[in-house]
Give the backbone structure.
Amino acid sequence: MKNYSVFDVIGPRMIGPSSSHTAGAARIALAARKVAHEKIKSVKFYLHGSFAQTYKGHGTDKALVGGFMGFATDDERIRNSFEIARENGLEFEFIPTNLGEEFHPNTVKVVMTKYDGSTLEVIGESIGGGNIKIVGINGLELEFTGSFSTLIVKQWDKPGAAAHITSCVAKNDINIAFMRIYREEKGENAFTIIEADNDIPDAVVADIKSDKAIIQDAFIIRL
Amino acid sequence: MNFKSGRELLEKCTENGIGIAEACIVREMELYGRSREEIIADMDKSYRIMRKAVERGVTEDLVSMGGLIGGEAKKLKTRRESTAPVCGSIVSKAMGAAMGVMEVNASMGLIVAAPTAGSCGILPGALITAADEFGKSDEEIVNALFTAAAIGIIITRNATVSGAEGGCQAETGAAAGMAAAGIVELMGGTPEQALDAAAICLKNIMGLICDPIAGLVEAPCQKRNAIGVANALISSELVLAGIGSIVPFDEVVQSMYEVGKRLPMEFRETALGGVASSPTGCTLCSRIFK
């Protein structure tokens, strides 16, 4: 059984009314925005399960847009996130849907359209107490929680990729808590996700991206 | 200084001649490598938010997202200022404080989950009201919040504080138990008395289901937070008078968990049973989500 911190039971500090429907929703959208890490023209939120049924009464919609604008779960601007997003030229839409039995009752699929017309899809589950799990990027099943400093690398599925990434991480004195590699097809796109106990510095990203033959993209997610 | 049960916590307190709050602070320093100052400053930040939420309930006109609640804290204050409350002044004030925090929560205001958003009125409502009544300082209140946290940590570890998993008994029961333990330490009671007060709170509402109308954190949640502060105040008064819990805290937590697990899913936050599925509950639900 797990140890809990004082601040797990008195906390999180959050905008109400529900840790899973409001705080968790904001964190999923924030994570999705960070996965995109470039300017987004429009976003569609596909709401599944309890999110689809009760999102208006719980302010899940405002929390999603607020998180997407980069607001933390205790940021009072979440209340007025629609107005703030519109002022910033972001288009957004909510679509109740059924993603299927295999998904948690509080799941949202975030589909983002960039200015070049390309789209990016992130699926997140709100698993209780404001905690979340990202379970998919662009149709690829993967998993991270955002509770740790998380490094995400998009690489070609080629020999040497993992060795290159871990050596860059080791060089910056980062202790890996969890590391997983996912790929779409043999020789095609692959993702490496590294979660670390201490904060992963931005220098690691530059080191990893220096090998352009293997690495497509790399970025850090801190929620 | 880690403790996994009430019994272990009592042992640590006795061995080191310290209170629950101190044991909890030292545990946090050891487990997470943070300094005492950092941890206390972090808790102080949450305390300020709790106090602000209590004030907002009686000074602002708050309307909930679902429209089922709003204005209750003010109504209690108005009556309290014009006549003697049936339940006495301190209970009326604590109820109002708890209901007001729930109004802040339901209107998308800033609160501290304690241990959950659905029970976020009880700890500030009971603890801050009792502390103000007896002229306690901010430092003493922050200290009592660590006592409350220790109780919450043990219940979360060995049972659950989630309504979806264990019903309202788990959620508002844990919150009341946390508040009662904090009040006991604030009033100079012993660690054993603090645990007994928490045990009594859990026993008082054992079996209480979670049946939110339309699935929203509004009704009956807000009134159950009012009951929760009364539960905390009554239980702390019992133990301070020397009336202990016949069944030890750890066994009560275990019983609560077993009851929670055996509650049908209709009674665990799904809004499919209890008052949520009453004719009025269903009518309100279809009106809110039309």
Summary: Residues 6-289 of chain B form a domain with the 2-methylcitrate dehydratase PrpD fold (CATH 1.10.4100).
